[in-house]
Specification:
Structural class: alpha/beta
Largest sheet: 8 strands, mixed
Distance between the termini: 26 Å
Strand order of the largest sheet: 4-3-2-5-1-6-7-8
Number of helices: 15
Helix content: 40-55%
C-alpha cells in the first residue's frame, strides 16, 4: 500500500474507538513475530508532562550517542511526529512500508476470528516494527491512555518506568479518584524494575510506592526540594538541581522544571545501570529537546503562545506559569475545548487571569461548539467572549485588536494546535 492507503486503513479502524486491554495487542504482535521483544525501553505514563519528559529523555539519550526511538501521541501537525528515531520523524514512504506489514497481520487475525485492532494498537505495532528495523539502542515509549491496559504495556521490564504528574482525566475509563488513576498509571511498573516518579500529591505517591513495594521495584523520587529556578522567559528556563548548575531548557513554564528534573533523574538511574550518559549529554539533551505546543512562542510583539493544556490540572499549571512570566498582566485567550473534558473547571482556572476570550471549535467531532463555550464564559464572568466559526478568523481578530505589549495565549485542546501553528507559518 502507499501512504494514502495506509492512512485510509487507519481511518477505517477508528470506528472501534479506544479499547483498553492487552489481548488483541498480544495477538497482533504474535502475528508480526513480536518485534517489540529484544529492545530496551524507557516507559512513561502520567496525566500531564509525558510528552515533555519523553522529549527531554530522548534528547539526553541521543546526545549520549545512543540510537534512540521516540513514540508519542497524539501528533500535532503531521502523523510522522508520533514515531521518531534520533529526532527524525518516520517518512510517508516508511509509514506505507511498515503499515503494509501491520495491516496484513491485522487481516490475518480478523480472518481467524480475532477482534480487530484499534487505531492506537495498529500505530503502536507500527512503532515497534519501525524501531526494530532501525536497530534502536533504546526506545522512549509514551503510554497512550492509562498504563496497565495500554497497548504499549506489552513490553517486558523496561530499563526505567517513569511516572509523571497524575491528575483527574479520562475518568470514565480510569477511575474517579487520584488513587484509582494512579493505580492504572502504575500498571507499567514491572517486577524488579527501576521507577522514577515525579514529585507530586501524597495520594498518588502513596499508591505508586505501594505498587513498587509489591513488585520489588526500585522507587526513585525526582525530588524538587533541591531544585532552584534561576531564570525563566518565554524562550526557556535555567535551573540548578542536585549537583548540576545552570541547566537550561528551550521549553518554558514552571511545570517544565518538574518535567526536566524527572528526566534528569531518569538519566541518572540509567547511568547507574551502566548506560554511558555524561553531564554534557544531559545539558545538551535538555536544551535541544523541543515539544510542539508546550507553551510554544509563535509570535513576538505581541507575544502569542500556544499550549496543549486541556484538563483542569494542566490549565492550572499553565496559568501559574503565565503569572510568573507576566506578573500583573491580564491575557487574551483563544480557547477551544472538547465536550467530553471537564472544560468548566479548566475555564474557572483561567478566568482570573483573563482580559477577554476568543472561542473556537477544535477540528474534531468531540469538540464543544465555540458558541456554547462563549456562552459558558459569559455566564461565569463579565468578560468579553467572542465565538468564531474558523480558527484563522479568531486569530485575525486577536492580532488586529491586540497592542504591541499584549499577551495572547491559545489553550484548551491539542487538536487546534496544528491550525494555529500553520497560521503562523510553522511546520
Amino acid at each position: 500500500m502507499d501512504y494514502r492507503e495506509a492512512m485510509a486503513f487507519l481511518d477505517r479502524a477508528k470506528v472501534l474507538g479506544s479499547v483498553l486491554g492487552l489481548e488483541t495487542m498480544r495477538r497482533l504482535m504474535d502475528e508480526m513475530g513480536n518485534p517489540h521483544r529484544g529492545m530496551k525501553y524507557v516507559h512513561i505514563a502520567g496525566t500531564n508532562g509525558k510528552g515533555s519528559a519523553a522529549s527531554y529523555i530522548s534528547g539526553i539519550l541521543r546526545c549520549a550517542g545512543f540510537r534512540t526511538g521516540l513514540y508519542t501521541s497524539p501528533y500535532v501537525q503531521r502523523f510522522g511526529e508520533r514515531i521518531q528515531v534520533d529526532g527524525v520523524s518516520i517518512t510517508e514512504e516508511e509509514i506505507a512500508a511498515v503499515m503494509t506489514e501491520v495491516a496484513a497481520a491485522s487481516e490475518r487475525m480478523v480472518k481467524n476470528g480475532a477482534q480487530p485492532p484499534t487505531v492506537f494498537e495498529l500505530v503502536t505495532a507500527m512503532g515497534f516494527a519501525y524501531f526494530q528495523r532501525k536497530s534502536c539502542d533504546i526506545v522512549v515509549l509514551e503510554v497512550g491512555l492509562g498504563g496497565r491496559l495500554d497497548a504499549t504495556n506489552i513490553i517486558e521490564e523496561p530499563e526505567v518506568a517513569v511516572i509523571t504528574r497524575i491528575g483527574l482525566d479520562h475518568t470514565e475509563l480510569l477511575g474517579n479518584t487520584i488513587a484509582q488513576i494512579a493505580a492504572e498509571k502504575g500498571g507499567i511498573i514491572k517486577p524488579g524494575c527501576d521507577v522514577v516518579v515525579y514529585d507530586q500529591s501524597a495520594e498518588a505517591t502513596r499508591v505508586i510506592e505501594e505498587i513498587c513495594a509489591r513488585r520489588s521495584a526500585k522507587y526513585h523520587l525526582a525530588d524538587l526540594t533541591s531544585a532552584t529556578l534561576r531564570h525563566m522567559t518565554v524562550k526557556g528556563l535555567v535551573f540548578d538541581w542536585g549537583g548540576y548548575e545552570a541547566l537550561s531548557t528551550s521549553l518554558t513554564g514552571l511545570h517544565q522544571l518538574n518535567n526536566a528534573v524527572t528526566a534528569v533523574k531518569a538519566a541518572e538511574v540509567l547511568r547507574e545501570q551502566g548506560w554511558e550518559i555524561g553531564e554534557a549529554a544531559v545539558r545538551e539533551g535538555l536544551f535541544r529537546a523541543g515539544c510542539i505546543g508546550r507553551l510554544e512562542l509563535l509570535h513576538e510583539n505581541p507575544v502569542f503562545l500556544v499550549d496543549g493544556a486541556h484538563n483542569p490540572q494542566g490549565v492550572k499549571a499553565l496559568m501559574e506559569s503565565l503569572r510568573a512570566l507576566f506578573p500583573g498582566k491580564k491575557l487574551r485567550f483563544l480557547m477551544g475545548v472538547l465536550a467530553d473534558k471537564d472544560y468548566l473547571s479548566a475555564l474557572e482556572a483561567a478566568l482570573p487571569l483573563a482580559e477577554r476570550f476568543y472561542t473556537v471549535t477544535p477540528p474534531i467531532d468531540r469538540a464543544l461548539p465555540a458558541a456554547r463555550l462563549a456562552a459558558a464564559i459569559r455566564e461565569r464572568s463579565s468578560l468579553p467572549a467572542l465565538s468564531f466559526s474558523e480558527i484563522s478568523k479568531a486569530l485575525d481578530a486577536m492580532l488586529h485588536e491586540a497592542e504591541r505589549d499584549s499577551v495572547l495565549c491559545a489553550f484548551g485542546s491539542l487538536y487546534q494546535i496544528a491550525a494555529i501553528r500553520t497560521y503562523f507559518g510553522r511546520e
